């Protein structure tokens, strides 16, 4: 399962590159894309840890948790609105994978 999660993180990082393709044209944009990929990995780990704190792990609760984690993180990192939105969407896209891992760990 952990291998599947790592593949998902890599895929999510690649999706972030695609979402930020407009920024990739400049050197500053390229650095921003790399930084968002790093942020995504950190946030995905935090999200996975916080799943156990949810009383009821549903897609809605997961999506809310993802948005809250990005919001808290963005206060520390001062992320742009577009970057925050991209990170939230990328994390929320991981629902099925994280749900499977959560249920496997719970058993």
Layout of helices and strands, plus pairs?
Blueprint: H1 2-19, H2 27-50, H3 59-77, H4 81-92, H5 95-106
Summary, kept brief:
The chain is mostly helical.
- Total domains: 1
Query: In percent, how much strand structure appears in the residues?
Result: under 5%
The first-to-last residue Cα distance is 13 Å
What is the mean pLDDT?
77
Q: Mind summarizing the main beta sheet? A: none
Topology, number of strands: 0
Low-confidence region ranges: 21-30
- Total of helices: 5
Secondary-structure element pattern, one letter each = HHHHH
Helix content: over 70%
Q: Indicate the radius of gyration in whole angstroms.
A: 14 Å
Global outline:
globular
**Structural class by helix and strand composition:** mainly alpha
Description:
This protein has 107 residues and is mostly helical. It has one domain (2-106). The chain is 79% helix and 0% strand. The longest helix is centred in the middle third of the chain and has 24 residues, at 27-50. The chain starts with a helix and ends with a helix.
């Amino acid at each position: 399962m952990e291998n599947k999660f790592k593949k998902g993180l890599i895929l999510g990082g690649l999706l972030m590159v695609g979402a930020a393709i407009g920024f990739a044209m400049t050197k500053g944009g390229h650095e921003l894309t790399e930084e968002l990929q790093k942020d995504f990995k950190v946030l995905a780990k935090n999200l996975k840890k916080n799943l156990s704190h949810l009383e009821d792990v549903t897609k809605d609760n997961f999506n809310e948790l993802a948005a809250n984690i990005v919001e808290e993180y963005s206060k520390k990192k001062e992320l742009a609105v577009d970057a925050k939105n991209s990170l939230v969407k990328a994390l929320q896209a991981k629902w099925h994978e994280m749900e499977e891992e959560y249920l496997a760990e719970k058993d």
